[in-house]
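ugh ok fine here u go
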Amino acid sequence: EAAEFVGKQADGLIKMVNPKSLLPTQTRNEMTGNQIERLKKSMQSDGYDGRYPIDAWNVKGELYIKDGHHRTAASIKAGIKEIPARIERVTDSAKVSEIVSDWARTVSDKY
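structure:
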């Protein structure tokens, strides 16, 4: 994986990733535009706050957002090229199906 290793927390590996490489599991309708704008402005002036990594699932090499859709969308809008992500590998077939199904709902709904 090309992502730079940053550290390890008890619940997963933290790597720097391009926010555009993270696949959403929420639709745009499930997100708040005001919060994205507020976060974007903060990131434009102060950068991404590394104390709040995105939580992501690694399913067969693809990274799906578990938590942090607003932060991911804001970082893309702010032009930030790398953000920290706490990555949890998922191999359980039922969980994989659920994650991929959630992502499939968002395919036509880019943010």
